[in-house]
Amino acid sequence: MSTFKIKSYGKSEFAWLMFPDMKDPSTAQDKLLRWIKKDPRFHKRILRLASSKDDNEYTKEQIQLIINKFGEPGEYDGY
Predict the structure, then answer these.
(1) pLDDT tens per residue across span 8-58
(2) Cα dist. 36→1, 3, 4, 31, 78 in Å?
(3) Which of 3, 30, 45, 49 is the most exposed place for a label (fewest CB within 10 A)?
(4) Is residue 22 within 8 Å of 31, Cβ to Cβ?
């Protein structure tokens, strides 16, 4: 059973959870954004759920979508 909590996370904070081996949070954030943008329809869904265009945080709904697509932090290494 998973212990990962679905909640709002800062974008770099969540990205670093997804990619703990990256050298810093901003590099992890760039990588996660590349993953998301590989699927334009998925990217649009993520954007529609944002609190604002320049939001620095993922909502819990966005986190759930990301988890549904890529798995929980540490589960997916396909990119």
Answers:
(1) 999 999 999 999 999 999 999 999 999 999 999 999 999 999 877 678 999
(2) 26, 23, 20, 9, 13
(3) 3
(4) yes
